[in-house]
Amino acid sequence: MSTNKKNMNVPEKGKLIAKDHRQDYKSVDPNFGPSGEPWSEQVPDIAKSDNHDKYPGGYIIEPPTEDSLKIYDERSANYPIQQKVLDEKYAQLPPEGQGAYHAKSLVEMEDYYTHQRNEFLGYQCAEKFKISKNISPFLNMSLNNIGDPFVNGYFTVNAKQAERGVLDFFASIWHAQWPSLPKPEREASVDDATYLKSPEYKKYKESYWGYVLSMGSTEGNLYAVLSARDYLSGFSLVSDDSEDVSLCLPDIMGEKSTNKYTPVAFYSEAAHYSLAKAVHAMQVKTFAQIANEKIIEQELKKQTEVAYKETENWDCPLGGEWPESVPVDEYGCVKIDELVKLVKFFAEKGYAPFICFNYGTTFKGAYDDIPEACKKLNPIFEANNLVNREVQYFDMDGNPKTDHRRGYWIHVDGALGASLMPFVEMAVENKQLERNDLAPCFDFRNEEVMSLVTSGHKWPDAPAPTGVYMTKNKYLITPVATPDYLGSADTTFAGSRSGLSAMILWNLIAKEGIPGMVDRAKKTMELCSYTYDKFNELQKKLGEFDIWLKRAPHGGTSFIFRKPINDIMFKYSLPIEVEKTKEETRTRKQTYVHLFIFWDRDKEMIDSLINDLGSKDAFDKDSDVYIEIPVSRKKRIQKTKRPVKLLKRSAHKGFR
Q: For 191, phi and psi rounded to 5 degrees?
C-alpha cells in the first residue's frame, strides 16, 4: 500500500472527500477492490497534489461519486446470479493496482469463466478450444495490420501474410476467383477501350478483395452498407481510373431520375441488429422510412394545399401499413414473395436497392434461400435498368467520366452459416451427411452476390471477435485517403486492425485444414440430430404442456423452446426472445430461449439440459402471458389518424 499519507488531507473512511467547485456533485470513499480498503487509501502519492486550487479534492485523478459495486449490482439486477457467483470487487482496479490480490483475482475470474464455459449452450460460438500453446508467443507483441491487407506498408510488425493466407482460403471455399489480383499496369499508348477490354483487366475485376475483421460480422455489415451506399450513389470505382486517389462525385444534376443515386435498404425481421445500426450510421434509409416519410409529406400537403392532387402512390404493396422490415416465416427465413413485391415497388420508382440476406440468423439460425430469391429478383433488376446502368461522374480534374455498373447491391450476412456450410457441403457430397443438412447456396456462385461476411469466433472458433469480409475488385470504391505514413491505401473500415485475429484464424486453418473442418461440421450436424430427438422425447414426456420446440430447416443448428427458470437460464447461458401476438382485446406475450449446437458441445451437455427441463416446474410461469389492452388505449388507437402515428414512428426510427 502507498506510504506518506500523514501529511495528505485524506478523509476518514466513508466520509465525503471534497466538494469540487468545477462540478455539481460530491465524491465518496467506498471500500474498493479485492482488499476491501477505502478507495482513498489506495491512491498512490504520484496521483495526489497539495495544489488544492488546481485539484480541489487533493487528487490528480477523479474520485468516485458513488459506490460502483452497488451501482453495477443494481444495473445488472435482472442478471443477479453472475454478480453473486463472481464478486465484482475482483474486477475493480484500485489506482495503485491490486498488488498482492492480483493473483487471487485471476483465479476467481478463471474459475468462474471456466465453469460457465463448460456448460455453455446458448450462443452461436465455440468455447472449448486450446490455442494458447501456438498463439501465446504472439501475445507479447503488437501485431497491427493497419492499411490494405495486400500491401505490407511501413508498419513491419504486421500479420498481413497470415491474413492473406486466411483470405485465400475463404475465397476458395466461397468460390471467389483467387488470389486477389492487383490492377494491371497500363502503358501510356494504350487507349481506354483497349485497356478495359484486355483479358488481364477483366481477370483483375473478377478477383476477390477482402480483409480479416477485428469486430466480427457487425464490422463487415457496416462496411458492406458503406460500400453499397457509395457504389449505388455513383462514386468512382477503383477499377475506373488508376489516377484517382479520392472519391469522385456523381453527376447528379445531369440525371433525369431524382432517385437513381438514392440507396434503399431491405433486410428481414430476423436480421441481426447490426443491420439497423449500420444503415443508421451510414445514413441509408430503409424502405419503410422512405415510404412513411412520403406518406407524411402527402398528408401534410393535403392539409395545407387547397388544390393538392396526389401524383404518387405510396400504399404498401403487401397491404396495410408498411412493415419496418421484410417479413419472415415461422422459422425466420425471409418471405421471398414479399421481398420481391417491396423491391419491385421501389425499383419502379427509380431507387437503388441494397438487399441483405441472412445465412444463419441470430436467434432461430435460419438460412434464406438466396438462389430462389435472386431468381425472382432478376426480372425486376432487368426491367428497371439495374443490371448494367450508366453512371456519370467527374474525375479529380473535373473531366466527365462514364462507367457501367449495377443499380443494386446484394450482401449476405453469413455470420454463422458462411463458415460452416462449405464443410457441410463437402460432407454431403461425399455421403458423410444427409442432403437435408445442407442449406441453399450462399456464396459467389450466386452471380448476384456482391459481398459476404462471416464471424470466425462463431464457427469454427476464436477467443475474441473476428471474421472475414469479402467482395470483388470491380465493386471497390476509390479510397477516401492514402496516408503516406501507412505505405498503403486506407481501404478497410477500421484504421488499426488486429493482426492477432489473423494469426488466430491462420493457426486454426493451418492445423485443421479442410479435413479437420469437415470433421467438426459432421460432429455439429450429428449432435443436432441427437438434440432434436432428445427434445422430442422431452415433449412426449411433458404431454400437453407445449415447450414450443422449433428448429430451422436446412441444417439449422439452433433450437428454440419455452423460457425456463432463471437458474437453468444462467447455467446454460440461454438468451431470450419475446414474440407478441396482437388480438382484438389483448396481446399474447411468449418468451422463448435458444441454444446453438457446435462442434465443441457433447451429448452429456444435452442430456444434462434435458434432465433439468424434465418437468413443467422447470419452465418460467411467466413465459406465456396475456396482456389486456386498456379500454382508454383501444379508443385512442381507433381514433388516432394515420399521419400522426406515422410521424411518431418516423421520429423514433428515422434519422436525428
A: -80, 170
Comparing CA positions, the residue from 363, 360, 348, 235 lying closest to residue 287 is: 348
Q: Are 492 and 531 in contact (CB under 8 A)?
A: no
> Taking the domain 216-481, which CATH number applies?
3.40.640
Residue 516: Cβ-neighbour burial (10 angstroms; 0-12, 13-18, 19+): middle
- β pairing state of 550-551 and 409-413: unpaired
- In the chain, where does the domain assigned CATH 3.90.1150 lie? 522-633
CB of 467 within 8 A of CB of 216? yes
Strands 576-582, 586-596: pairing is: antiparallel
How large is the average pLDDT for residues 639-643?
Answer: 41
pTM for the predicted model, two decimal places = 0.89
* Average pLDDT of span 109-115: 95
Do 456 and 468 touch, CB atoms closer than 8 A? yes
Across 334-351, average pLDDT:
98
DSSP 184: P
Q: Which residue has the cell 400537403?
A: 301
Query: pLDDT grade, residue 633 (50/70/90)?
Result: low
Q: Are 371 and 557 in contact (CB under 8 A)?
A: no
Q: How far is CA 521 from CA 75, 422, 525, 613, in A?
A: 39, 9, 6, 27
How many CB atoms are closer than 10 A to CB 544?
Answer: 5
Evaluate if residue 133 carries a pLDDT over 60: yes
The set of cell numbers assigned to 568 is 437453468
Q: How many C-beta atoms lie closer than 10 Å to residue 137's C-beta?
A: 9
CATH architecture for residues 522-633: Alpha-Beta Complex (3.90)
Closest CA to 421 of 481, 370, 494: 370
**DSSP characters over 381-426:** HHHTT-SSEEEEEE-TTS-EEEEEE-S-EEEEE-TTHHHHHHHHHH
| Most confidently modeled range among 252-266, 545-559, 636-650 | 545-559
List, by residue range, all CATH 3.40.640 domains of the chain.
216-481
Q: In 10 A of CB 258, how many CB atoms?
A: 10
Looking at residues 438-454, what average pLDDT do you find? 97
Specify the DSSP element, H or E, that contains 100.
none
- Cell 415510404 sits on residue: 291
pLDDT, residue 631, reads 66
